Model the fold of this input.
Amino acid sequence: MKKVSQVLLVVLVIAVFITACSPSVPAAPVESEPQANGEKVGETLRIGVVSPMSGPGATAGKYIVNGVKLLEEKLKTEGGLLVGDTRYPIEFLYEDNEAKEETTTNVYQKLINQDNVIAIVGPDMSKAILAAGPIAQSAGVVAVGTFTTNEAVTQVGDYIFRACFIDPFQGKAAATYAWDAGFKTAAVIYNNADAYSKGLYENFELAFTELGGEIVEVQAYSGSDIKDYNVQLTKIKAANPDVVFIPNMFTEIPLQVRQARELGITAKFVGGDSMDAPEVAQLAGFENIEGTAYVSAFSPDNPDPVAQEFVKAFNDAYGMNPNSNAVLAYEAAMMILESIKNAATVDRKGVRDAMASLKDLHLPSGTITVGPDRNPIKGAAILMYNSEGVPEFVVNVNP
Amino acid sequence: MTTFFQLLIYGLQLGSVYALLALGYTMVYGIVGMINFAHGDFLMIGALSTVFLAMAFMNTSSAALSAIQVITIILIAMIGTGLIGVLVEAIAYKPLRDRPRMTALITAVGVSMFLQNFPRALPFIGPNPRPFPRLFPLVQLNLGGVTITSTQLIMLGLSIILMVILYFIVNKTPLGAQMRAVSMDKDAALLMGININVIISLTFFIGAALASSSGIFYASIYPQVDVYMGSWLGTKSFIAAVLGGIGDIRGAMLGGFILGISEIFATSINSNLGYMIGFIVLILILLFKPAGLLGKFSIEKV
Done:
């Protein structure tokens, strides 16, 4: 038995060695004869889609794959992507990164070296693209993160893009909404051990005071282990603000909201996109969370015609509303297709250069322009929990 | 002054949770001589089982829970967790009783990881937090600007009653005498005809049942339950037990309340200080009174 396993091991090692060493075979460009309608058929272009299809992030992965599949179906009926007078068939390759850094690195390597993709959509997590980004960067392949909101993501290199807004913008969007809703004084309770929470708070404060509002109380707590916010909330209650900004994790927000209501704080709450989790309303209690607003990448109730067209197509195909994951994956893929169309030459470098100057592309969550730091300039949606704990669309906030 | 009393109430509420949990640490240490790092996870099991019990009771009667139902739920959760405690001792610690102490300590860390990750892996529990049902009616009393909720009062009352019962059992009953005998000298107790295995199992049962009750109280004021909730609380309560003098029951109660109150007051000065205060207190105690506030120095026999 031991011998057999040893032999198997040797075979496995050799197999891995051969696969790793085999040179990537780029599909030779097949420029065929012009067809009847004057179109030429180009080589098949492959786009990698990396998402957590299994494991704890599997729900997000499902939405991401569905979002891209919608686009794939559309391209199939059209016969491919028309660039100039050449129609390129597009093939999407879906890879599972299990929401892990190491696996993301592996599938990036596979997509780039073996499958010879022209660009990659995803993954959806900052930590995963931070780990795998350098591979795409050194190979010169465009990678577009979907929900990767951490600022450091695009700083990996000039081939790394994203489809979502970044954390500082959320703070600003929340402040803009709070001010426009007529709140003049605000208090903040934030986690000073969490970069997300701290970043949102700082940008909220900056934007809110700039607009003319006043921050009357700022209270911090040290880490997610803390469950008792009574001390901080008692001080906030004494300051009597119009609105309380709570840019915290979805596991912490429900307790904060509950304790605040039990202390008799009646002010409205505003939060960041971490609140976009179905558990929040359940854990906090519907009567406590009612009227709480938060910043989100997308709302299916957005009245914009492009958004409604997308929502309808998604509903027709899968029988449910798309969430932010689906929209951002769809938009990341759209950004890549648009860049292929605009590229001077249809190759990896051409796509990158075209994406860096992408401008005024109208997508479901709004008009998107890629900024000089490869972060998209785009709007956010403000959602508000109703008395049944269901978030409803309130307004779009534009940068 | 109002603020002072308000903070004191928060401190007592947090302190009673620490105290109940610290009792388990201190009893196990006093009798078996090992530190059961999995003790905090008994708190989680108590809280989590209460969630499922309440769900089952609510399904049958659909209305809000009656007082009898709540008492039944708490009792079932406490007894169930107590039995799990006995089981853990029998499977993981009993075979190691004659090994060096370090072996049992490391095993305890392993047991803690198992107790956290096994429920996490079960599909009907999983890693996500879930809301804790309201067991006690919520009435807010206002005494001269100080807000007290009925939950806080019931909790504080029940935890003090439980502590008094425990103190009475240990000090005034024959069973308690046997426990104290085992804690003083295991071999001599054996010679006196005391069944050590039963006493140790009973110690784990009481410790786990108290942890379960503290879990129910904790989740009643901070109504959110997940599988990792016990680890941080366990650490804090361990500090409380050492602070009061590990092995001493009054010390555990005192240590729990001191830690809870100082944590709340420190947080009101600065949130980072509130986070650190437990460890600062621990270091100071170990420097100046290594046996704890009420602990007596015992001479290690070589």
User: Anything to note?
Assistant: The radius of gyration of chain A is 24 Å. Confidence is low (pLDDT under 50) at residues 19-30 of chain A. Residues 42-165+305-378 of chain A form a domain with the Rossmann fold fold (CATH 3.40.50.2300). The longest strand of chain A covers residues 214-221.
